[in-house]
Amino acid sequence: MLILIQFSILIVLLTGSTLVAWYEGSTLLQKPWEWNYSTPISHILHGGVESRDQISQVDYFVYAAKFQPAFPIVMVLSSVYIIFLIGYHFFKYRPKRFAYYLSFWGIIFLILNLLIHHSPTVGGQILFYIWSLFAFLSLGIAAILYFGSFNIGKGGTA
Q1: SS3 letters across the chain
Q2: pLDDT by residue (tens digit) across 26-79?
Q3: For residue 81, is it within any domain?
Q4: Among 41, 62, 131, 134, who pairs with 58 as Cys (CB 3.0-4.6 Å)?
Q5: Nearest CA among 149, 58, 66 for reference residue 100
């Protein structure tokens, strides 16, 4: 029951912070000088941005994360908590599988870090440190779970 309450609160928090970040990021439409620097998805889709119509909705979140990072940070924190909660729920009795699950997400967080590690903005730097923290936390817990359960299976004590 506690996991359901946590999950419900996190979904509400994620939804609310997503809506606010999306709204804050929509100010990108009024700043054409930022289109070359804050629209990576639109550049992938269209090869460049010439008009407001070419800006992807996802780029609103990129802009918000760069210049108004409070709600994108709440999005990231609640998303990561949901990811950990789902993994815990499904693998709480299988520590090795939970270790693989956490390792997978740790690698994803490291890849996300590679995408933003040169960000000159405060929001990009904060997200870099948050994803670094969760990457090493995920990989550290995964190692403890994997090797701890491995020793138990071999007759060791825990």
Answers
A1: CHHHHHHHHHHHHHHHHHHHHHHHHHHHHHCHHHCCCCCHHHHHHHCCCCCHHHCCCHHHHHHHHHHCCHHHHHHHHHHHHHHHHHHHHHHCCCHHHHHHHHHHHHHHHHHHHHHHCCCCCHHHHHHHHHHHHHHHHHHHHHHHHHHHHHHHHCCCCC
A2: 999 999 898 888 888 898 888 888 888 889 999 999 999 999 999 999 999 999
A3: no
A4: 41
A5: 149
What would the pLDDT profile of 104-116 be if each residue is shown by its tens digit?
999 999 998 998 8
Answer yes or no: is 7 within a domain.
yes
Both ends of the chain: CA-CA distance in Å? 28
- Residue 51 and residue 13 share a domain: yes
Cα gap 95→141, rounded to integer Å: 10
d(CA 71, CA 22): 9
The whole domain housing 149 covers 93-158
Q: How far is CA 103 from each of CA 65, 139, 141, rounded to the nearest angstrom?
A: 25, 5, 9
